Amino acid sequence: MKKTFPLTHPKIKPARLVDSVRAEISKYIKRERRKKLPDGIDFWDFDCKVGADSATASEQHVSAVSHSIGEVLEAGNETVYVEIIAKPATRTSRPSEGTSRPSEPEQNTLES
């Protein structure tokens, strides 16, 4: 999805336009995550860019897209450019912390 959304309208307040942009992006991400995963792939990841236009768009994590759209509005821009590209990804294993869980839980005893 590569799209430029207007943030000005003669009858609609900019805050409501931002809400509609966020809703459209949310629907797009949900639709992409429902697609069938290729073999050996764990989940869909997203490359995201947000800015006033395509030249000034900066890379964002998918969870920061909504906040970035609000920042573009606060900066006084009339449009917001959003680019979200789905890509297959695999999870990386976490390094072991060196400590394992005890096999039996410790019991608290009160001594008198």
Integer average pLDDT? 89
Q: What is the number of helical segments per DSSP (H or I, 4+ residues)?
A: 2
Q: Main β-sheet: number of strands, strand sense, barrel status? A: 4 strands, antiparallel
Q: Structural class given helices, strands, pairing?
A: alpha+beta
- Identify the overall geometry: elongated
Strand order of the largest sheet: 1-4-2-3
Number of domains: 1
Low-confidence parts = none
The total strand number stands at: 4
Please give the share of residues in helix: 25-40%
Structure keywords:
single chain; about 110 residues; alpha+beta; four-stranded antiparallel beta sheet; 2 helices; 4 strands; about 25% helix; elongated
Description of the molecule:
The chain has 112 residues and is α+β, with helices and mostly antiparallel strands. The protein has one domain. Helix content is 27%, strand content 25%. It has two helices and four strands; from the N terminus they run βαββαβ. The chain has helices spanning 14-33, 65-74; strands at residues 2-6, 43-51, 58-60, 79-89. The protein has a four-stranded antiparallel β-sheet with strand order 1-4-2-3, with helices on one face. Strand 2 and strand 3 form a beta hairpin. Helix 1 (14-33) packs antiparallel against helix 2 (65-74). The termini are far apart. 12% of the residues are buried.
